[in-house]
Amino acid sequence: MQFLKRYDLLKLRKHFSFSFIKELSQCGMRALFGRILNIPKPMWKLNAARLKGIAVHKILELFFEKSKTVDLYKDLDRALDIIFVQAESDINDEEDRPEEEKTYIRDYIRLNNLYLKGLLTPYLKGFRKDIEIYRDFLLPELSFKKTEIAGHLCTGRIDLGIGPRLVDFKTTSKSNTGPMLQHVYKLQCGMYDLMDELSEKPAHFEHFSVHQIILKKQPEVLEFDFTKEEINTCKPELKHNILQARKLISDQTFVRNYADIFCPCEYIELCRDEKKVEQAVKDLELPESVF
Ligand code: SF4
What we know:
Layout: H1 9-14, H2 18-26, H3 28-36, H4 48-67, H5 76-92, H6 99-111, H7 113-125, H8 128-134, E1 138-139, E2 142-149, E3 152-158, E4 160-162, E5 165-172, H9 179-198, E6 207-214, E7 220-227, H10 228-233, H11 235-250, H12 268-272, H13 274-283
Parallel strand pairs: 5-6
Antiparallel strand pairs: 1-4, 2-3, 4-5, 6-7
Helix pairs in contact: 2-3, 4-5, 4-6, 5-6
C-alpha cells in the first residue's frame, strides 16, 4: 500500500502531453498508475521495441545536433561510428534509467552496428540538401515544458525542426499505413503546432512529417506528410480531447480498457487488486488549482 501513496500532482500538471491524453483514452487505469500516481513501471519484462526506439531516437538526435556545425556527409560511415559510441555513453549517463534498460540499449547499438547503418544511411542522405539549406534553422530537439493549451499546462517534444518542416520519428516493428494511424499522426502534429504557436519563439512550421522507422529484418522508412491546412482541420478535435481528458481526471473516472491491445500491461498485478485501486482513486485529492 505504501507505494500507492506516491502521489505527485505536479507531475500531472507537467505531463499533460499528447501521449498522456492518448494513454487516458486507451486505458485510464494505466494512465492513473503511471502518470498520475507516478508508480514506477514494475520490471515486468523489458519492452524491447521501446528500447530499440530509444536507441534510434538517440542516434538521430545526435546526428542532427552535430550536423549544425560539422559536415557529417563527407564520411557518413565514420560519422555514424562516432555517433554510435556517443549514443552508448549518453545512455549510460542517464540517471533515471534502470541499469537493465541501459544494458539492453547499449548492446542493441553495439551488436546491430551494420543493421543500423543500413537503415540510417539512405534515410539520412535524404536530409543532405535540406541540411545544406537550413543549417542555421536546424532544431534537433524542441521541447515545450509549460505551454498552456485549452486552459491546461501541456508538455511535449518535437524530434526535429528543419527550416519550415517539423519531423517526428516513430519507430515500429511493422509498417502501418492505415487511415486511423494517419489521423493519430495528424493530431500529434497538431498538438506540436499548437505548442509551437504558443511558445516564446515560434518556428512557424508549414509542413509536418511523421517518419515511421520500421525496425524489421529488411528495415524501411515510411514518410507521412501533412500540410498546415490539414493540421488546422484537426485542431477542434484536439482541443475537444484535451478538455475531455481534463474532465476525466477531475471526475476521477479511470476506466479499465481490457479490449486495448496493450492489455495486460506492466501494472497487471496492481490492476487486479480492486481494493488497492479503489483506495488509490479515493485518496487522490486534486487541488482546486489544478483546474
Ligand atoms: S492490465 Fe490492462 S486494464 Fe489493467 S492497467 Fe494494464 S492495460 Fe489497463
